[in-house]
Amino acid sequence: MTIIIDKSKVEKNFDVALVGLGNVGFGKYLSRREDLLLDHYSAIKNQNTLNLVLCSDKRIPDGLQEFAVNDVKEISSLNVDLLVISTSTETHLNVIETFLKQNSARMILIEKPCTGSIHEINQLKKLLEMRVETEIFVNYHRNYNDIFIDAFSNKAMGKLQCGVVHYSNGALNNASHALSLIFPMLEDVVGIETFGSSRIKKFQDLDFVLENSDGTKVVFLATNEELYSNFRLELDFDHGVVSYDSAKGEIQTRMRVVDPDFNGRRNLDPVGSTVSTNERKGFQYVYNFLVSKLGNEKVNPRIGINLDAAIKIHEIFEQ
Fold it and tell me: What is the pTM of this model?
């Protein structure tokens, strides 16, 4: 009997190279690894269509010696579908330049923040303009999670009025996570004002206000990371409030309702609705998106952070 294989239903395998096996690359910051997808290595291995062919780091973790090398130049013979960069921020541009001198990649995922300066990210843009076959995305992982996208772009909420963001561990490093979620709601950011400083020091914790041309303002307030890690958003819209707390791992929506005690007044629903963000598998959303893109599948256009969006974030901190 002849067996006919429908090639359209056969799983595709995409080759991946991972550069950087530290905290975000291999999850060295995690106290446990089981049931967590919060590092690139685990998230890649969790995808049955991704083939991790080689890793690179100056210090190779135990168990990876067989398919890891110490120098990124040693992967000069590779052409891969996906290149993942999770080295320290100041090395991102150099790693990509080194790789692309001899190799090709259909797609690059680069750890946030994309680079250390607006100058570097513009250099990266020029480099990619000469390699038009390569797409680049930045790992602001919440922007790849449908739960966040649906909550913060719900048309029933109306227009953004104002907001408050509490963050720790650096403006460009962590406040940028909030910027990546908020930018789609602001058509024309006209300025940024810091409290007690004439210019944001991008890798420090500073308080600042982001202002849109229509008067919408979002206040960013910093907390010392040594006290506790902190990432919370509360955004006020025409018809209600959306709040998020990373420590709880949930988003709460409270819609505008009629006040039962006072005529003509409206309040926020005291209970609202709450949805889990399932962030213990946060990187899974990123790699689900990348696999879909590699397979030429249709994806939600609101999902993901490309190079142009990353440039907007840098521009805020260096205007």
Answer: 0.91
